[in-house]
Design goal:
Elements: H1 9-13, H2 16-19, E1 32-36, H3 42-49, E2 56-63, E3 77-80, E4 85-87, H4 88-92, E5 97-102, H5 109-118, E6 122-128, H6 135-141, E7 147-151, H7 156-163
Parallel strand pairs: 1-2, 1-5, 5-6, 6-7
Antiparallel strand pairs: 2-3, 3-4
């Protein structure tokens, strides 16, 4: 008689010597920046920011250029939730991941996506809306986002950020 292989069988089969190589501490939070690409995404960011995510910065795309960023291009202008404007490069400095949030319009996708690409910042996208309304945002974000999620539930933004540890 054979027994089924359980999902945790490998963990139980490890010797004490092998177990010493396991990570013992809790996972760390990502240093993330969450960027609203359109006005419809700003309230979603405010709600997610209210859930107190340490190390995560929340900003909204507001314009195309804030002068030279030192690499031959201009940094997009963003505004934080306290309405302080600044260059996106300032927020991307040291970020592990940039999460782009859009509703039916992702007008800043190319500009913000290129800024992330220049800095080699991993990019994920959350698009709120149904498949038909969000087609433009999906097409705009596809070249820049390694991970893309389309959802109808605005509460998913906070849940997805939690899953990303952002």
């Amino acid at each position: 008689m054979t027994h089924p292989t359980l999902l945790n069988s490998c963990a139980r089969a490890a010797t004490a010597e092998e177990a010493r190589y396991r990570i013992q501490g809790p996972p760390t939070d990502a240093n993330a920046v969450v960027i609203a690409l359109d006005s419809g995404a700003v309230p979603l960011l405010r709600e997610a920011a209210a859930q107190r995510r340490s190390g995560t910065r929340f900003v909204a795309f507001t314009g195309e250029a804030a002068g030279s960023n030192g690499s031959g291009g201009a940094s997009p202008v963003v505004t934080d939730l306290e309405q302080q404007a600044g260059p996106l490069d300032q927020y991307l400095a040291g970020a592990d991941v940039a999460v782009l949030v859009a509703t039916s319009n992702a007008a800043g996708a190319a500009v913000v996506g290129e800024a992330c690409r220049r800095r080699s910042t991993m990019t994920a996208a959350i698009i709120m809306g149904d498949g038909r309304d969000s087609d433009g945002a999906v097409a705009a974000l596809r070249p820049y986002a390694r991970v893309m999620i389309v959802s109808k539930d605005p509460g998913d933004v906070g849940e997805i950020l939690s899953a990303l540890r952002a």
